Structure formats: structure tokens, C-alpha cells
Automatic annotation (TrEMBL):
<feature type="transmembrane region" description="Helical">
    <location>
        <begin position="43"/>
        <end position="61"/>
    </location>
</feature>
<dbReference type="InterPro" id="IPR006976">
    <property type="entry name" value="VanZ-like"/>
</dbReference>
<protein>
    <submittedName>
        <fullName>Glycopeptide antibiotics resistance protein</fullName>
    </submittedName>
</protein>
<keyword id="KW-1133">Transmembrane helix</keyword>
<feature type="transmembrane region" description="Helical">
    <location>
        <begin position="307"/>
        <end position="325"/>
    </location>
</feature>
<feature type="transmembrane region" description="Helical">
    <location>
        <begin position="165"/>
        <end position="183"/>
    </location>
</feature>
<keyword id="KW-0812">Transmembrane</keyword>
<feature type="transmembrane region" description="Helical">
    <location>
        <begin position="126"/>
        <end position="153"/>
    </location>
</feature>
<dbReference type="InterPro" id="IPR053150">
    <property type="entry name" value="Teicoplanin_resist-assoc"/>
</dbReference>
<feature type="transmembrane region" description="Helical">
    <location>
        <begin position="237"/>
        <end position="267"/>
    </location>
</feature>
<feature type="transmembrane region" description="Helical">
    <location>
        <begin position="101"/>
        <end position="119"/>
    </location>
</feature>
<dbReference type="Pfam" id="PF04892">
    <property type="entry name" value="VanZ"/>
</dbReference>
<keyword id="KW-0472">Membrane</keyword>
<feature type="transmembrane region" description="Helical">
    <location>
        <begin position="6"/>
        <end position="31"/>
    </location>
</feature>
<feature type="transmembrane region" description="Helical">
    <location>
        <begin position="204"/>
        <end position="231"/>
    </location>
</feature>
<feature type="transmembrane region" description="Helical">
    <location>
        <begin position="279"/>
        <end position="301"/>
    </location>
</feature>
<feature type="domain" description="VanZ-like">
    <location>
        <begin position="49"/>
        <end position="180"/>
    </location>
</feature>
Length: 357
């Protein structure tokens, strides 16, 4: 793989990993700050995450071997690039486009233009904030370079260039201007506290959050076990490893069980602001039934690693998916069997929790 593609690949991989970790909090914040989560804004935020990773990978990678480092002095004279551009010749447009110094400055400007654009389109921030942000981010990168990644290397292996700082800051400002000139007119946004319809997409998003929480909570338990192993100082942990494996299953299982028994909804449904309503089936019966035929059954079958368990798990997943589209109010399999309804959690409580389906 070429050295030019390596930073891009690292940025994409790291960005995707961070996106997975941030998925549940992102959905929760979106529903509480904007009342919903749209595909377009989600794509923009994902692109912003990849871009932020690329800023660092393209300015720091590849890392050299310690014995291959060539120390470089900082360039602290502002606008030195003007002399460099003139030195290589600017007699024509073609010559300017082939001028390495001019190309370098242009690339530094272009590199930071998305920063200003994202701040304008996603954050609604103006020129001043974009300029300050461009300066601060560029300064952090330059300081990281001049300190040899904060002392990881004995000296700077990339040039600290004050002209890069100027060009990057100008790029962020230019990106903000472009975002203002080419951006669409701000759409009228609904009140974040206004109830929204329960759609199939919203129900599936809640299910996806439930699955993500299973893995995230499990990973937290595994991370705790690794930290304990790191600081234990012995070849074996005082607590057997199977205890951590059991905890990785029990923590999300119990959390989901408590959520359903208390409110009739899973953690994922709470994240997307869905509320459950009971019909003819008493809550003491409907909620455990809903749990066992929904997220609880999914987790138990996931642990039952046999051919029968796999078939039952596949049947549960497929049935739940199809019934999200085919049941009244997009209730899905478990809610329909438990004779429960769903509505937006922001709906007034006038009807209480006893609406008949």
C-alpha cells in the first residue's frame, strides 16, 4: 500500500470504530436536541468524524523509526512562502500550478476548508468561530509535530511552519464562507419536544440501539477485566475469567430486564423516545412476555450456541423485522403478542397507560 493511502485507510478505520462507539449517544442526543435523527445529518456527522481523523493521520503519519529520524528546524518567519513561490517562478498560470511552494500552500488551505464548512453546516457557527477553530486545531497539530509527538521522539521529524498555521486558518475561514454562500436556506425546524409519529425506521433504530448496547456494555466489562489484569501484577487474575464472561452477559441482560419491567420498553426504545401502552393484558404479564419474546429472548438465544439456538435466533430476528412493517403502529412481534401499543414519549399523559389496542 502506498504511503499516500495509508493515512486515509487509518482515518477511515479509526473513524468507523469511533462511530460505532458514539452511535448510541449520538442517537440519544439527536432525539433530545432535534427531536429526531435524519439520514442526511447522520451522514454529515460521520463525514466530519472521518475528516477529523484524516487531519491527524495526514499530518502525523507515517511514523518513522527512531533510528531513521532526521531532525528538522522550525520555520518561524511569517509569509516565507511568498519568497518560495517567487523562487520557483510564477510567470504563467501553468507555471503557478506546477510551482511546488504554491501547491503546498493551496493544499494547506484546502485541507482546512472542510473544518469551516462543517462548523457552519452542522454547528451553525460563523466566521469568527471557524477562524479560531482553524487556528487552534492547526496550532495543536504544529505543536505535536515540533515536540516530536509530545516527546515520543527525541526531536521534530516534521517541520513546524508558521506559514502552515496561516494557510490552515485561512482555509477554515474560507470553508465557512463557502458554507454560507452555497448552503441551503435554513429549514424551519420542529420543536424538539413536539411528538413525532412512530415509524418503522424509528422502531428499527431503537432495535439497533438495543443490539449496540448489548455489545457496548459487554465491551465495558471486558475492558474492566483487561485493566484489572494489567494492574494485578500476577500471571492469573484473582477473579476467574469466566466471572467476567458471565458479567458481560448479565450486565446488559439485567439492564434491559429492569427497563422493560419498569416501563414496558427497552433501553433502545427509551433512547428514541418511545413509550409503551397497555391494553387488555395486565402489565405484570405483558411486560415479562414482551421481554422474553423481544430483547431478552434475543440475548438468551445468542448465548445458546447450538444449531437449534441459531435457527430460533434467526427466526426471531426475521419475524421481528417483518412485523415492524406489518403490525399496527409498527409495534413488532413482541409488543403485538403482549397486546401492547407504542407512542411517542413526548405525548401528553392524558390517556394514561391503559389505552386498549
Amino acid at each position: 500500500m502506498s504511503s499516500a493511502l495509508t493515512p486515509a485507510l487509518v482515518a477511515v478505520l479509526v473513524g468507523c470504530g469511533l462511530a460505532v462507539l458514539a452511535f448510541v449517544p449520538f442517537v440519544a442526543v439527536s432525539y433530545r436536541r432535534r427531536g429526531e435523527m435524519t439520514l442526511w445529518r447522520s451522514i454529515l456527522w460521520f463525514a466530519a468524524l472521518i475528516y477529523s481523523m484524516a487531519l491527524w493521520t495526514y499530518t502525523l503519519l507515517p511514523f518513522p523509526q527512531s533510528h531513521d529520524i532526521t531532525c528538522v528546524p522550525p520555520q518561524t518567519v511569517p509569509f516565507m512562502f511568498v519568497n518560495d513561490v517567487a523562487h520557483h517562478g510564477v510567470g504563467s498560470v501553468g507555471a503557478l500550478m506546477q510551482n511546488p511552494a504554491a501547491v503546498q500552500v493551496a493544499l494547506n488551505v484546502v485541507l482546512f476548508m472542510p473544518l469551516g464548512w462543517f462548523l457552519r453546516r452542522l454547528g451553525g457557527r460563523g466566521f469568527i468561530v471557524a477562524t479560531i477553530a482553524g487556528f487552534v486545531v492547526s496550532m495543536l497539530i504544529e505543536i505535536t509535530q515540533v515536540t516530536g509527538i509530545w516527546g515520543l521522539y527525541s526531536c521534530a521529524y516534521r517541520v513546524f511552519d508558521v506559514d502552515d498555521l496561516i494557510a490552515n486558518t485561512a482555509g477554515a475561514l474560507a470553508g465557512s464562507i463557502v458554507g454560507t454562500l452555497l448552503g441551503k436556506r435554513r429549514e424551519q425546524r420542529m420543536d424538539a419536544g413536539a411528538p413525532r409519529p412512530i415509524t418503522a425506521t424509528r422502531r428499527l433504530l431503537g432495535m439497533l440501539c438495543d443490539v449496540a448496547l448489548i455489545w457496548l456494555l459487554g465491551w465495558i466489562v471486558v475492558a474492566v477485566s483487561l485493566v484489572l489484569a494489567l494492574f494485578d501484577g500476577r500471571s492469573e487474575l484473582a477473579v476467574p475469567m469466566f466471572v467476567f464472561d458471565a458479567a458481560a452477559f448479565a450486565v446488559p441482560f439485567v439492564a434491559q430486564l429492569i427497563s422493560v419491567l419498569i416501563g414496558g420498553v427497552t433501553l433502545g426504545e427509551r433512547i428514541v423516545l418511545i413509550r409503551a401502552l397497555h391494553g387488555v393484558t395486565p402489565a405484570a404479564v405483558a411486560r415479562p412476555l414482551r421481554f422474553l419474546l423481544g430483547i431478552g429472548g434475543y440475548m438468551l438465544l445468542l448465548e445458546w450456541q447450538t444449531s437449534i439456538g441459531g435457527l430460533l435466533l434467526a427466526a426471531l430476528v426475521v419475524t421481528s423485522f417483518i412485523m415492524v412493517f406489518t403490525t399496527r403502529g409498527h409495534r413488532g412481534f413482541a409488543l403485538a403478542v403482549a397486546a401492547m401499543e407504542v407512542e411517542d414519549a413526548r405525548m401528553p399523559h392524558e390517556r394514561g397507560d391503559a389505552r386498549r389496542p
